[in-house]
Amino acid sequence: MKIHIPTPLRPYADKQATVTVEASTVGQALEALTSTHPELKKHLYSDGGKLRAFVNIYLNDEDIRYLAAKEATPVKESDSLTIIPSIAGGRPSISPRGKRG
Amino acid sequence: MGDGQGAIWDADGAFVVIELSSVHHSALRQHGEETYPHECCGVLLGHAAEALNRVEAVVRAGNTRTDSAHNRYNIAPQELVRIQREARESGLDIVGFYHSHPDHPAQWSVTDLAEAHWMGCSYVITSVERGVAQQTNSFRLTGEGEDDKKFKDEEVRVVSAAAS
Questions:
Q1: How is residue A69 annotated by DSSP?
Q2: pLDDT value of position B162
Q3: Which CATH number applies to B17-163?
Q4: Of residues A82, A88, A93, nearest to B84 (C-beta)
Q5: Contacts of B77 in chain A (CB under 8 A)
Q6: Is the dihedral of CA B85, B61, B28, B136 positive or negative?
Q7: Would you list the domain boundaries of chain A?
């Protein structure tokens, strides 16, 4: 199956936009990706081995966090995983109550 | 051009530019005027390089932060997945993002840096005062990762649409 790598993580995946792996579950696919490209690991997972909060991984059009079987979800050759860090921000709050923006 | 001081050279002399056509420049500024007093947001597609991010398309995105849209923006990951797929099919990459700061300067905030994770990408900010777009600045997210990331002032180079 194919795993699509976002621009900021390509330097850690031999500059590839798409990596092809052999896997039968989501977890195996990610394992295959990070064993071939170990530098990706620290960008995807926290020290505790948990997927970083701002990293989203989609199996086709579904967030893997919301799949019933999570990383044990079976995958087919024609499926694709997309790694997509979040995009958010905003201006500081003008509130005088000291709430940080 | 950051704060207008032209401080786009850093200590090691590295120089970064985002280049976009006047049509794209107007499009992202107009988006901020349309959504005022809420923040607008969108994705910049094009070709990325270390020194120059060249924009070939501007894609509007919805702001999911309806709870606090006057000072926050968030693009739904699902929408990003779709935008990235369409970009890939057109031979383009995500090279940056834009958003507006309603009634606030076009400078990055603590929140903007904390929630920026796309190293090498350009983060374009337009200040919109009383509904009218003012300054448009861009900041390149640099660093190896979350621990050392920072925003660097980036030159916004607007080229005529015909030349792009």
A1: T
A2: 63
A3: 3.40.140.10
A4: A82
A5: 56, 58, 63, 84, 86
A6: negative
A7: 2-85
Q: Give the length of chain A.
A: 101
| A55 chain-B contacts, CB cut-off 8 A | 117
Task: Give the sheet arrangement for strand A18-20, strand by strand.
Answer: A18-20, A2-4, A80-85, A55-59, A62-63
C-alpha span between B22 and B55 (Å, rounded): 11
CA torsion sign for B135, B133, B42, A41 is positive
Three-class SS state of B83 = helix
Classify strands A55-59 and B73-75 as parallel, antiparallel or unpaired: unpaired
How do residues B79-89 score in pLDDT, each as one tens digit?
A: 999 999 999 99
Q: What is the ipTM of this complex?
A: 0.86
Mutate to test the interface with B, among A15, A91, A94 (most CBs of B within 10 A): A91
| Residue-wise burial string across A11-28, b where 16 or more C-beta atoms lie within 10 A, e elsewhere | ebbeeeeebebebeebbb
Tokens 């005027």 belong to B33
Do B95 and A7 make contact, defined as CB atoms within 8 angstroms? yes
Distance CA B52, CA B18 (A): 6
A2-85 has which CATH code? 3.10.20.30
pLDDT tens per residue across span B117-139: 999 999 999 999 999 999 999 99
Query: Contact, B116 vs B74, CB < 8 A?
Result: no
